[in-house]
Amino acid sequence: MKTRITELFGIQHPIIQGGMHYVGFAELTAAVSNAGGLGFITGLTQRTPELLAKEIARCLDMTDKPFGVNLTFLPTFSAPPYLEYIAAIKESGVRIIETAGRSPEEYMPVIKAAGIKVIHKCTSVRHALKAENIGCDAVSVDGFECGGHPGEDDIPNMILLPRAAEELKIPFVASGGMADGRGLVAALALGAEGINMGTRFVATKEAPVHENVKRAIVEATELDTRLVMRPLRNTERVLRNAGVEKLIEIEREKGATLKIGDIYEQVAGVYPKVMVNGEMDAGAWSCGMVAGLIRDIPSARELIDRIMAEAEELIRGRLGAMTDRA
Ligand SMILES: Cc1cc2nc3c(=O)[nH]c(=O)nc-3n(C[C@H](O)[C@H](O)[C@H](O)COP(=O)(O)O)c2cc1C
């Protein structure tokens, strides 16, 4: 399948693996890229730019296909040295960055001077337009369904994607709620040129996370995610668990006076506990509603091949037959 996204990034299939804290290590990134998609190493999971350079080197040993690095600009307890991370990416030879969270505007001159392509992940048409205006090459449009940070507008992809298509000149991929060929075909119909997936890629063989995490996603239904941190305007969609129930209880008690310190235990340092140790009740970790569509743990290649085969069958078969009859 050829789209503006496959052309832009030099990839075979229009399927991207978004950055994921404590999931986006070299193993998954390389597996996705080797399968013809576009994998992303999660920059900030590496505690220093030097460690990121090492992770990129590991990935380069595992694939000769294009891959990128995610740089997330979110409120954290201490601001990371972003310019040094960008320098590490540049020096390693990686030429694709996925930005997310805040606008990457202040870093664009440095990134562009290094010849790096930028796909910015955002949750609204206005932020997508801003990304286009500051020179991003593409955007990932993240609907309300998505795992992670859906923003504060709560617009699902069925509306957000066609709205983005109406306004944007640069190509975009649909992010949030994507797991199979049906999602890909729907996204293409709504104007996207590919898909970005998070949760679906966590439940793959190569995702280097505890088996409990993969099992929890397979067992979860579309009813099992919760929105947390809305009072802080840092809303996150997470999988419900005992830690998250506690967090929601604190949010209810504190109301508008909630401070990040009140929920420190439920949100800080949770990822290693969940992803490495498999402590499923530790607190807030991102997971999308799409968990309701995830029922197995295939390899990245099996997953991507299946999505592409399903998409082709849908387009040529079911949809084609409908128009033929007409
Ligand atoms: C476990 C997990 C961790 C994530 N961490 C990050 C992150 O660090 N930075 C980021 O930009 N997006 C992060 N995301 C969001 C994904 O990159 C992607 O945009 C999102 O999962 C898409 O929605 P989906 O889960 O419905 O596919 C994370 C998602 C998950 C499931």
TrEMBL record:
GO MF entry, a single one: nitronate monooxygenase activity
Q: Which InterPro entries match?
A: Aldolase_TIM, NMO
Keywords in alphabetical order, please.
Flavoprotein, FMN, Monooxygenase, Oxidoreductase
Could you tell me what this protein is called? Nitronate monooxygenase
Lineage of the source organism?
A: Bacteria, Pseudomonadati, Pseudomonadota, Betaproteobacteria, Burkholderiales
